[in-house]
Task: structure prediction
Amino acid sequence: MSGAFLAEDLRFELAILATVQGFYQKLMRDSLGGDVPIPSGLDEDALRHSDRELPTTLSRMYRWLHLLDMAITPAMVRQALTPDTDSEVAEALLRYFVRRREPSDVNRDKTDLIATFLYRHPRVPGQWEQSGYGLDGALPLSPFEIALIEILADTDVPSLPEEHVQLLRRFDPLREEVSRFRDFNALIDSGVIARVRELKQWLDSSFYHPGVLATVAAYNCAFGHKFDELFAKALTEIKSFGQALEEMGGTILSTVDGVEVTVEHVAAIEEKQMLQADYASTLEKFRRVSKLKKELDRRPPIRRPLMTPVGQASRASAGSSAGAAPKTAKAKAAAAKAAAPAVFQPPTVTAQQIAAEDGKLRRVEESIRVFVRVADPKYRQVVPMRFFNLTLTPAEADAYSAAFLEEKSLRAEVARTLIRLVSISARISTELEELKRSQKMSSLWKLHADAVVVLLDMASTATEEGGSVAKTAEQSGSGVAAKSIHESVQKLRAQSDVAVKTLANVS
Result:
């Protein structure tokens, strides 16, 4: 009988891992545009007939999922967990990460995201708002903690020492503190984000206890709601200021960290995109928005001039006077465009275009990174793209699989530089191919031609920055790193030359 129970437990564990594998496959498909090959014996059909070798299959499945974990970031998990995600899938993911209990920031962050997702999306609306009840005379448990205890009933959860119980009691005062903020700058300056992240690290392996996960998830939801609300309010005020400034003919809002912030920079800020990203990875961007808000708060409000019919008439009269030249840059551009022959004219690259292209580049970088990290080492240097195969140098492949990209070090700077150079080159190749395929459709052709112009501008900046990083590497005695950057720069320059000739030869 005990053997039968053991086999049943193993089958249940294998079913959990199969669900996790299915989620990972979908996530990788969305990132790469294609399926990642599943090892023999671990596909869905094979798992149905693996009763005789359950322990071996489980061991292989854990090794395979650990490999996939290396290529999947918390941000990818966050984006993949949507309101349409089945609760059973999220519960299987939670069981998987709690069973692993790996003492790393990445594993903890993924578990944090999944528990918070389950709190935000209960099976029955409002079920977490009911009052809890006590067990064995203890303090009342929250409904969400009771649900987590049931979900993790078959999992060996860690015990909760008294010092960690004391740490948990800090979350309620922090939640109260967050609820009192009425200004985005005050929230950012309070340091509450760093304090909570430090608390989570201090909890160590106890973080995977149902009581801890329930407390943290409730705090995350409260904080996220307040953060989103205040950020949206601050961004609306900044954009309104920018719009008013533009109507009066101004372009520069302020200077933040020595960089001029223009109306176009502000217009390019995507609220939804920033809020969907990880707070940890985009915290510096949020800080810059806060600094800009402070600078604008110090200024008196802009009063838009009231345009009366008389004022409109006088402006029209001045604009139509004999021999008068165009008064604005837009008028000059329109006049030049009317006089120019009907050939392709490279448009002026705007900050908004660069910001949009940056988003595409990040997706390309992530796709290549995922492939390189999970591919067979023999084949990882040939990345299948939509229209072509992208060939990487060994140094470029190493950069994409590096685990130290967030460091503030020379090796991280070299790796980020190589990734940037390769991704721009890949994007240029893709847009050139799209350009060739859309020559009979003028509207599409123009879009792809404009994209190539933007990429050429970014390529120029990237090669200059690459040269600077290579020089630093040489001065630090890392000639190999400098050589790898020079090789990637040459590849990008060659690709840029092809793009320039293509635009020059196509009318």
Observations:
- The chain has a mean pLDDT of 78.
- Residues 227-297 form one domain.
- Strands lie at 252-256, 259-262, 382-384, 389-391.
- The chain is about 70% helix and 5% strand.
